[in-house]
Every structure is written in C-alpha cells, then in structure tokens.
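This is your field. Please look over both lines of this record.
***
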Amino acid sequence: MEKLILNKCDRNKMNFVIVIGAMKSGTTSLFNILGQHPEICSAKTKDADFFCNEPRDLSNNSYQSQYHWNPGVHKVALEASVAYTKAPYVKDIPKKIYSSGFGDFKFIYMLRHPLRRIESQIRHGIFAGWGKSLDEEFPQSAVEFSKYGLQLEKYLKYYGEEKVHLLTMEDFKSTPNLMLKNICQFLDINSEFKFSNPNEVYNSGAFFNGSKITAKITQSRFGQTIANKFLTPDMKNLIRNFLSIENPTSQEQDECKNRWRLNDSEEQRILDLLKADLNRLEIKYGVDVRSVWNLKI
C-alpha cells in the first residue's frame, strides 16, 4: 500500500489515540468521558471506522476532517472504533494505520469478561436485526472478538507495548478516577484534570428493551447518521434512557424467543476455545483473568 505522508508541520501538531475496543466493553462511555478533557479533541463520530475503508479512501484530509482541532489547546486527537479489533472479519487495520503515515498513534484497549461481552454482542445483534438467537447459531465471530491476546498482537507487530494501554471494563467501573488518571499519564496530558460523572454509563444495555420500531429507527443508517450529526452525547443518552422503559412481560417473552444468555455447556465450550488466548493474556500481558473475571483456566 502506498504510504500517505503528512507534512512535517502537521505531523508535529497532531498526536492520535484510538480506543480500539473491545466491542461491548464500555468503549462508548470511555470515549465520551475522555472527551471532557480540554487537551483531548474527540472525533465528531464515535465508531467512524475510518481505517476500515479501502486504501484509496485513506487520505490525510479526510482523516483530519473528523476533528475540530485547535492547535493552541489540543494535544491528542481521540477516535474510537471497535471494528479495529474484529480480526479476522475486519482485516489489516493495524497495518493500515501504521502505513498511513498520518502521525504518532497510541491505542487504548478496554477488555471485558469474555463471556459477558459475548452475551452483550449477541443481544445487540438480535436487537439490531443482524444477529441470531443462540438457539439458531453458535457465535463464532463473537468468540474471535474475545480473543484479546490475538487481537492485541496484531497491533504489537507494528507498535511497541508502550504504545498500547490495556484496562478492563470491570476495573474502570470500580475505580474510574484511577483508570482515567492512568490513561492521562499514558497520553502525557494533565492527569490531575477532574472528570465529571466518571461513573456515567453510555449506551446502556437497558436500551435493548425498546420496541422493534425503536430498533429499526436507531440501528438504520439514516438514524445513525442523524444522531451523529445533530445530537450531542448527552442528548443521545437522554433519548436512550427514554426509549429503554422496560416492559417486563414483553422482555421475558422476547428472551424466550431470542435467547442471548449462555447456558453452562455453552460457557464451557467458549472457555475451552479461549483457554490458550486467556493464558497468553495473563502470562504475556499481565491481565489477571483469574481475579478480575473470576475465571478458572
């Protein structure tokens, strides 16, 4: 792939950090909370998936157009696209980023208990209309997206470990201020900044209790385009909360019809498939999967 080079002046102006996943691991909350920091310039759209485009579409101007960059204020440009850790279904993302020559990149990879992450992905897919019940299909893609060690190594092929910050959703929920301080230190920005409501949850699963009409509107390309262009994160969260009013009877019926919770045998099958990767994650990258996720591997 032809390398696209920024001029020296632009390269010195912008440093990039990408929240690369994992899908359904709290990345929307992290993106919105980090966006409060005055030294961080958030992309206009979360999950823009810019590097999922073909090489001919990867231009410097189109990438920088994601941001309202103020060189006198901002130190880091923030993107978040969970598709970037969906190999092998989404291919060569680390190579595309590295080969772009757009500037200096760092990465944040937030992980979640793999079984709970898989359930959340299946639930999301059923709600959005592209997924199937566990009674119809075993989630092979969801298993691949939970191979955190494998996804991570694809980045380390091009970037050193000092360029990738790992944390778990569980640690972020229990000690958000400490996790945010660690991230700020990783990004070399003011780590004493006080974030507002660091415990606030965006894109809550309760939203999936909405009606089929809600799903059709919110998950359509038209609905997402309108939301990304005209709604602030607070407005999106307000709408989600309004639409997520639970109907226990219909929810119970829907779960029987569209099962997304794993049973014991399915959990064991998945853990067997993930065992080698979880061991790699613990031994090589220091994620204590036994204590954080209470997994016996």
Residues 8-292 form a domain with the Rossmann fold fold (CATH 3.40.50.300). The first strand starts at residue 15 and ends at 21.
